[in-house]
């Protein structure tokens, strides 16, 4: 069927109106909901049994920033809350608005983030009800790159297409004992490093022959890597996306603002950017990752043109190694899986469901063929909700 254009009219996406049912009502997130939603988030995703006022307040303030006060958005929030018949918060669905383009047509996209229900007030209806109400909005496609297994169970019957490769995470280990120590310290921040680090260094010295440097010899001496800043990354990334039929459409400074928000994430260190170039200075690819010496680097975005994924991945790994990281982790993509297989000490795991739903046949076909740019900045793993420990 022909692709329906959405270029005409204002960019604002109409939020669904209040929907009432025997299980309660669903409506857009409002300021007065933030503290209850923040408390539910901390209990569900940070396992906080005893909530501190500071943690709730910081989480609520961050949710206000991304769900109620995003730049350029007016009107009701796209995020939704479910209120049960007793008037209590039953569930929450985080939604961020974005734009895609396909064959010159602009599409309105909903990026789905946290989906959660209060087990004390919900009887299994909040999640499906929130998704059904979201699907009644004026979005052309709905996507997520961080669905847990419970969310997968809700979404698959609603005709979401699963992208299996994007559901995997990859980890490249540079120094195994130091990486294990970094993981333990992140899980239990109170553990003194004086206990963990000396033993890790001793073990890694013994394992050096087995693991060694992860840096691959370049296939061409004419390729080089250089750091860049956020402004340069925002300027050059869109030019590398022409290989995708279904790709994001960032306008009016949206991408620089998105990178500013992404830089607020704290769990894995500062955000670093780099590019890979040929001998003429032409960019072949670029990357962005969070990292700091002694920590595990966390990939935010990697993109390359044509056949240059290998060189771009080499630049990413070299940058994390030179920074002093003990390893690097990230989301997989089908376009650089063959290059990942060429590295030693790379492991894969399930990291979160990546799914897309659309009623437009051309969108469905692009997703089926893997011709979509998704994950990273077109997901919600860049938000502080994905990893940060609030209130510390």
From TrEMBL:
| Name under which the protein is recorded | BioF2-like acetyltransferase domain-containing protein
From which domain of life does this come?
Answer: Bacteria
What organism does the UniProt record list as the source?
Mesorhizobium opportunistum
Using the UniProt annotation, give all residue ranges assigned to the region (Disordered): 1-22
């Amino acid at each position: 069927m022909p692709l329906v254009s959405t270029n005409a009219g204002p960019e604002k996406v109409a939020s669904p109106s209040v929907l009432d049912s025997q299980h309660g009502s669903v409506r857009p997130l409002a300021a007065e909901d933030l503290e209850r939603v923040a408390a539910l988030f901390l209990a569900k995703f940070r396992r906080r049994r005893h909530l501190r006022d500071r943690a709730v307040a910081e989480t609520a303030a961050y949710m206000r920033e991304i769900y109620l006060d995003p730049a350029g958005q007016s009107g009701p929030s796209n995020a939704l809350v479910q209120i049960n018949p007793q008037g209590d918060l039953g569930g929450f669905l985080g939604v961020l608005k974005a734009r895609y383009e396909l064959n010159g047509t602009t599409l309105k996209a909903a990026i789905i983030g946290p989906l959660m229900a209060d087990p004390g007030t919900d009887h299994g209806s909040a999640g499906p009800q929130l998704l059904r109400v979201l699907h009644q909005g004026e979005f052309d496609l709905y996507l997520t790159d961080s669905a847990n297994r419970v969310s997968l169970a809700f979404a698959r019957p609603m005709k979401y297409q699963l992208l299996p490769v994007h559901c995997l995470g990859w980890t490249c280990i540079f120094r195994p004992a130091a990486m294990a120590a970094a993981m333990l310290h992140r899980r239990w921040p109170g553990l003194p490093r004086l206990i963990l680090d000396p033993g890790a260094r001793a073990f890694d010295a013994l394992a050096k022959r087995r693991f060694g440097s992860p840096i691959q010899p370049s296939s061409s001496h004419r390729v080089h890597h250089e750091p860049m800043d956020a402004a340069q990354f925002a300027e050059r990334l869109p030019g590398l996306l022409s290989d995708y039929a279904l790709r994001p459409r960032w306008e009016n400074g949206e991408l620089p603002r998105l990178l500013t928000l992404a830089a607020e994430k704290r769990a894995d260190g500062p955000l670093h950017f780099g590019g890979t170039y040929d001998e003429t200075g032409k960019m072949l690819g670029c990357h962005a990752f969070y990292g700091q010496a002694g920590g595990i680097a966390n990939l935010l975005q990697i993109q390359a043109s044509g056949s240059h994924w290998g060189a771009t991945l080499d630049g990413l790994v070299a940058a994390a190694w030179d920074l002093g990281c003990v390893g690097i982790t990230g989301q997989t993509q089908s376009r650089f899986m063959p290059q990942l297989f060429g590295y030693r000490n790379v492991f894969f795991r399930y990291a979160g469901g990546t799914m897309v739903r659309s009623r437009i046949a051309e969108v469905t076909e692009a997703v089926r063929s893997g011709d979509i740019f998704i994950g990273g900045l077109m997901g919600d793993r860049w938000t502080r909700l994905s990893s940060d420990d609030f209130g510390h």
